[in-house]
Each structure stands twice: as C-alpha cells, then as structure tokens.
Amino acid sequence: MKVYKLEVGMLGTNCYIAVNDALHEGVIIDPGAEPERIMELVEKLGISVKAIFLTHGHSDHIGGLTEVKEATGVPVYVSEADAPMLTNPRSNLAMFMNTVFKSCKPDFFFHEGEVVTVAGMDFTIYATPGHTPGGVCIRHEDVVFCGDSIFSESIGRTDFPGGNYKQLIQGLKDKILTMEDDVHLLPGHGPDTTVGWERRRNPFLQ
C-alpha cells in the first residue's frame, strides 16, 4: 500500500488516499474539504477509487464528502454512532464553524474488530470513541489512520458534544498502545508518528 496525503480546509485536515498499486485501486480517507484537489490527485494517480472511509463525523473531515462521492460513485463507510453527523450540521459542528455543509448518508457501518476488504486491501477497524461517540482507527498492515483520536504527542479534543475524555484515553491504551512500536500512526491533523513514540512521549497516555 502507498499512502498519499493532502492537507485540506481551513483547519488543515489530513485527507489520505490509500493505493494498491498492483490493482491501480484505492480508498479515500476523510475527504474534509477541497474536493476538487482530492479528485485532481486521484486523476493524477490514475486509480479507481473503491470506497470512502470516515474516521469520524466532524465537518472538517466530511466537508468534501458529498462532492467526492458524487464524483466517484463509491460507498461511504462510517461508524453507526457517528452516522447521524453526516446529515446534522449541529452535531458535526458545521453550524458553529460557519461552513457550507451538504448532507450525505453512509452506505455501510464500521464495527469494532471487523476486517473490511476494499481495493484488494484488508482494513481492520478499531473503535476509539471519545473525540466523537463513534470515532474509529483504521489499520492496514503497519499503518493506522487515526482521525482525531490521537496526534503526535497529543490526543483529540473531548469537549465537543459527545466527547468523553476517559473513554478516549482507555480506548487508546487498549487499542493503539498495544500495537507494535514501529506501527505508523497517520492522524487527522499534523505530522505522522509511531506507536512507540506515543507510548514514550505522549503526556496524555502515561
């Protein structure tokens, strides 16, 4: 798998495209804004998009979802707990950020521990609620797409509606810190990191 990152929107959200070069197919993770840039990269890579994955339902991660879904015609995956956020500008915070928001219903729900096979790649789902009620981390081999559950030496905010600090910390300790040190963590904002680095350096997880 090759991973391409675009920083999109006014909050600098990391949108990722995970590509299976052997099949020339890929998955878009968190199309948060600037759908035209996302689709330009898809066209440049010359791949066929097979799905859109959402780590959670906040507006800065789904702001370009409707346009990207319309352009690709592929299914959208999100946790059932966060699914209502795709159609509710209050719960996804778009109302408070004064951003334009287009509703988009999901096609499939993520479930804890399941393996979703798309574009010839197996993705394992880890429920890490706390930043949102249904936040997930998505792992393929030694790479984890973390959304806003964990950042380099930090964690996602838990003071938004549906947030829960204790739940997030426990989930990260149980699901993420139990992974191998060299597993790469690709967060929803900021630089990449690794499990080993966060185990040693993240002040919230000590």
Description:
It is a single chain. The chain is of the alpha/beta class and 206 residues long. It contains six helices and 14 strands. The strands form three sheets. Strands 1-2-3-4-5-6 form a six-stranded mixed sheet, with helices on one face. A six-stranded mixed sheet has the order 7-8-9-10-13-14. A two-stranded antiparallel ribbon has the order 11-12. The N and C termini lie far apart (32 Å). The model has no long low-confidence stretch (mean pLDDT 96).
Helix % is: 10-25%
Count of extended strands: 14
Let me know the largest β-sheet.
6 strands, mixed
User: Strand order of the main beta sheet, please?
Assistant: 1-2-3-4-5-6
| Spans of at least 5 consecutive residues with low confidence | none
Q: What is the percentage of strand-forming residues? A: 25-35%
Average of pLDDT:
96
Structural class: alpha/beta
What sequence of helices (H) and strands (E) makes up the elements? EEEHEHHEHEEEEEEEHEEH
Per DSSP, the total helix count is 6
Rg is: 16 Å
